[in-house]
# Entry
Amino acid sequence: MRVQNCQRTEAAAPCATYILPLKRASAGELADLPEYLARVAVWAEVLVVDGSAEEVFAAHSREFPDGVVHLVPGHSCLNGKVAGVLTGLELARTELCVIADDDVRYTESAFRRMLALLRDADVVRPQNYFSPLPWHARWDTARTLLNRALGADYPGTLGVRRSLLLRAGGYCGDVLFENLELIRTVRAAGGREVRAPALFVARRPCTARHFRTQRVRQAYDDFAQPMRLAAELSLLPVLVAGTRRFRRFPLVAAAAAAGLAELGRRRSRGMDVFPASSALWAPAWLLERSVAVWAALGYRLAGGVPYAGARLSNAGHSLGELRRMLVDAQAGAVPAPVRSAHSAGYLSRLGSARVPGKRPASRP
# Structure
């Protein structure tokens, strides 16, 4: 299906939908998000699916500009982000959808490039980079560069075709690595993934305190990637054994890590957005991961990693598992696993009552 370029006007139907799952513990934490969404609303219809508590939801409604549709999730999942995405996909009026975390910041040119790539793809994976760059964002940038060197990074935003995901019944919301789950579900359903390592989309860094809390949780994601998990579990034993045999082994390992990260920086115009010093943080990140992944293993043995007041044991399904699940669902052997019991009726009522471009005054 070909999708023509379009410039949205107030009278024209949107050519794309921007879906932003959101949840905040308290009001007053949106920073520049309302201003950013006012710009996005010129390019696309904006759906913010907000799982915050009622009083926080109401405060957000007052802050969001006209043109932003503010909704509550119509699904119930262990991973609240997935609940927001599924609700947005079912209520979107367009085939092309851009899913983005609340810290993602598209420019208009990057957004148009995303839509152009979606003409011939079912899911598009761009490249995030941090802006600005406090110390902990530089630290985490090393992970990005290593991912680029060894394959592709996993960003906080994806472009998707709505129809394919809806035909697949959505994607599982009870896993930790939700973006990987979405990508694999699209592929399992026969869709085409396009990796776009030169499509750069800015991302606002979290606080240093939140960064520290993410170390083990991010390592837990690797249970969805067994080969990577095995490699990372071997890092600490190899470092200890190598240091015992060869005193300069840590220096050699650090140089190799920085060199690999620099390769990732130089791939696909990465030097345009990643500073030259970024690769030097790779040894520190690998040392952190060599410890954090063992802590993640401990959580796995204890029943799962803590997440939003619950425990998530499953980081993500394999491609083979998802293909079998889709075959079983199509045969009627099992129900679509992502739907909550109340979602269909809720979404029907909400969709019929919704007026595009207006915010509900309160939660339904």
About this structure: Residues 226-245 form the longest helix (20 residues). Confidence is low (pLDDT under 50) at residues 1-5, 337-364. Residues 212-312 form one domain.
